[in-house]
Design a protein that fits this description.
The chain has one domain. The protein contains five helices and eight strands, in the order βαααβββαβαβββ. It has helices at 13-17, 25-33, 39-48, 95-108, 122-126; strands at 4-12, 56-61, 64-72, 83-91, 116-118, 134-138, 141-145, 147-149. It has a six-stranded mixed beta sheet. A two-stranded antiparallel ribbon has the order 6-7. The N and C termini lie far apart (30 Å).
Length: 152
């Protein structure tokens, strides 16, 4: 049975994406996991959300459904820094390479949360489609958060 390592932290969206036209650590991360998607489309999707909106996107590795990149684009009602959650779940055999790439992204970000590394299934549990859509409330405002798999 494979062992998996999960990594996650929050950072400003624009520190994650960098310039979509030039190579980045995020693209290197995608390459290490053999996961590809249109970063420009993700960027456009993020810009289309307003305050108190945003969905979760999960990009699954083709030959290992338990390995994925997790991006929560929810823009909190009071968030002034465009924070998003980046998570990666990977086979423990890859965890050193993935950890190094994530630390590069983490260290170059203007603001970050705590860097979490776990051997539990916390990210995997967060991707359970039965838990979505989720209702997010803030005062009189309500938003429905959805989850999308390999959708960009």
């Amino acid at each position: 049975m494979k062992k998996y390592t999960e990594f996650s932290f929050y950072l400003p969206f624009f520190d994650l994406i960098d310039d979509p036209d030039e190579g980045s650590q995020f693209e290197q991360l995608m390459g290490q996991l053999h996961i590809s998607f249109d970063i420009t489309a993700l960027y456009q999707r993020y810009l289309s959300y307003g305050a108190g909106k945003g969905d979760i996107f999960v990009f699954i590795k083709e030959d290992d459904r338990d390995s994925f990149i997790f991006i929560d684009l929810f823009n909190g009602f009071t968030d002034q820094h465009n924070m998003v959650k980046l998570g990666v779940r990977c086979d423990s055999k890859l965890d050193e390479k993935i950890r190094n790439l994530l630390y590069q992204i983490y260290s170059q970000a203007e603001l970050t949360s705590k860097f979490i590394e776990s051997y539990d299934d916390l990210l995997k549990l967060e991707t359970c489609s039965g838990d979505y859509p989720k209702e997010i409330r803030y005062g009189d405002y309500t938003y429905i958060k959805n989850i999308h798999y390999n959708a960009i």
